[in-house]
Design goal:
Alpha-D-Glucose-1,6-Bisphosphate, Chain A, domain 4; 26% helix; 46% strand; alpha+beta; seven-stranded antiparallel β-sheet
Length: 152
């Protein structure tokens, strides 16, 4: 049974700044509490990651994943192959310019190998999404010279 979750956050930066931050996969462990290690396996001709090996830890479970990235002008998608803990994973970052800022939508679909009741996952799922979205927002703002209050 697939687990789906979504989160939106407004970031005071253009979509390209967000895409650039997501493309910097080696920095994930510095701002994403879920990612413990990230290594680019290969890249597209433009230098953006194609396949990435990551180690993630969630709810006490550590898992090694190989992600395949796809890039668009205002979106990034990755899919993970089956691992010890999951049949698969699909993550989408969709950006929409909005009044000089960007509305980022993060959608995750995860197919765990073990059957876990939804009530067990509800709070951790929401907390992880909120934390990752906010951490990404803060990282982008720090890299574009905007403070938490939106000042440059």
């Amino acid at each position: 049974m697939a687990i789906r979750a979504s989160r939106e956050v407004v970031i005071d930066a253009p979509p390209q700044a967000i895409i650039d931050q997501i493309a910097d996969v080696q920095s994930f462990p510095t701002w994403s509490p879920v990612h413990k290690r990230a290594e680019v396996i290969d890249t597209y001709p433009d230098g953006r990651p194609h396949h990435v090996k990551v180690t993630v830890k969630l709810m006490g479970i550590t898992d090694d994943e190989v992600l395949e990235y796809h890039w668009g002008p205002n979106w990034v998608v990755w899919d993970a192959d089956a691992t010890a803990a999951q049949h698969g994973q699909h993550v989408e970052f969709t950006m929409r310019p909005e009044a000089g800022k960007t509305r980022l939508r993060l959608d995750i679909t995860l197919e765990p190998k073990a059957l876990v009741p939804d009530f067990v996952l509800k709070r951790p799922r929401e907390n992880v999404l909120a934390t990752v979205a906010e951490s990404l927002r803060q990282q982008v703002m720090a890299n574009t010279g905007v403070d938490r209050a939106g000042n440059t």
